[in-house]
Fold this sequence. Notes:
Elements: E1 5-9, H1 16-27, E2 30-33, H2 34-47, H3 55-64, E3 67-70, E4 73-76, E5 79-80, H4 88-97, H5 101-112, E6 120-124, H6 127-131, E7 137-142, H7 145-158, H8 165-181, E8 194-197, H9 203-217
Parallel strand pairs: 1-6, 1-7, 2-6, 7-8
Antiparallel strand pairs: 3-4, 4-5
EC number: 2.7.4.25
Family: Belongs to the cytidylate kinase family. Type 1 subfamily.
Pfam families: Cytidylate_kin (PF02224)
Amino acid sequence: SQIPVITIDGPSGSGKGTVTGLVARQLGWHVLDSGAIYRVLALAAEQSGIAPTSEAALRTMALQLQVEFVDGKTLLGGADVGRAIRTESVGSYASQIASLEGVREGLLQRQRDFRQEPGLVADGRDMGTVVFTDAPLKIFLTASAEERARRRYLQLKEAGHSVNLPALVEEIRARDERDTNREVAPLKPADDAIVLDSTTLTIEQVVERVLAEATTRG
Ligand code: C5P
């Protein structure tokens, strides 16, 4: 495909969601929040009482998932689940099912379908390594574990969720470890990715850097 893609991968709390939204707005491109798709599948599975290890059932569910992103809303079978999918408990369930090959396969084409004119900014763990390997610009965004936990804490608080900081730090640590060490599509920079450490950078500085790279590679 000739349609341009910028991939932004990284661990939870690295700022990739915010950066993805701002870069896409600047360029007038589409957004793929792939983590939201894994989260919606996790929520649907939890609601249906499917165990996070039932690979065949989860693969079927992944292929049939009725998820839509409309006007900034995340809909599951028409119901707004935007808030429900943001809890760390759904994130943890998502990371368990995301380690299954059948689940990743079941969601692959759905993610590639987001590549539409005039371009796409895709946020996740394997956007550059698996889903859009031919992307002309790949970013891997990191930050220290403390800073990432702090950002997630503020995000959750702002969204009105009650959070226990030590428990959150532990859950994020476990989730990142699972995402990094899994056999299928582990979290790691693509060979041709630009690695950006955002620990001491503002969101604006990261966005500027990504846009500068996009212009150079345009
Ligand atoms: O990015 P977010 O925190 O919303 O993702 C939730 C979980 O979904 C991650 O911890 C990861 O296990 C999984 N995920 C993934 N591949 C992606 C995006 C998310 O495995 N491309």
